[in-house]
Amino acid sequence: MFVFRSEQRTNSFSNFAKLQKVVSIARMHSRKGGTSGSHRPDTKEAPKWAEYKTDEVEKLIVKLRKQEMSQAMIGTVLRDQYGVPSVKIITGKSIAKILKENDMASKFPEDLMFMIKHANKAYEHIKLNKKDKHSWRGLVLIESKIKRISKYYVASKVLPADWKYERAKLKILAQA
Fold it and tell me: Is 69 left (phi over 0), alpha (psi -120 to 50) or beta?
């Protein structure tokens, strides 16, 4: 089949437009796509095979938190050991909200604390290896993520309005 060049251009342009929509979700500090991987099924109700009811799942979350597990670890343990597909589907609430209702929530958001710990490890590495410029750039990127997410948490009133990222002060907080 013979195709004119103008038709080729329009077809390639429409394909490019489709690709552009797909690639719009990208990594923060690189130009890579980042859309591959498995996804949860789009369901609003608990599956029939789920053994646990709402109150049982909430009790499990409180029990696991008493063992000093993080929210992410609680979700992983519930999925892998107890067969809970999704806490939010079964209970209608997130793990963070359940912990907050039971006065077991941490003072600072978990994702922010993990990034602060990561930045502290990178800074300690840089103090030992002063010529490691690649790690220095990594630290800059981590700290920019911390500042960006802390700005969000200040705006949503999870953190106090005068909260700022300062490496020296938060080093103590991350070790606790």
Answer: beta
Please report whether residue 26 resides in a domain. no
141-155 average pLDDT score: 93
27-71 pLDDT tens trace = 677 767 666 677 777 888 888 888 888 999 999 999 999 999 999
Q: Alpha-carbon distance 77 to 17, whole Å?
A: 41
Separation CA 73–CA 89 (nearest Å)? 18
Residue 126 lies in a domain: yes
Specify the CATH number for the domain of residue 132: 1.10.287.10
**Do 158 and 109 contact (CB within 8 A), yes or no?**
yes
Domains identified in the chain, total number: 2
Please tell me whether residues 116 and 156 are part of one structural domain.
Answer: yes
For 114, the domain range is 110-175
Closest listed residue to residue 56, CA positions, set 104, 98, 100: 98
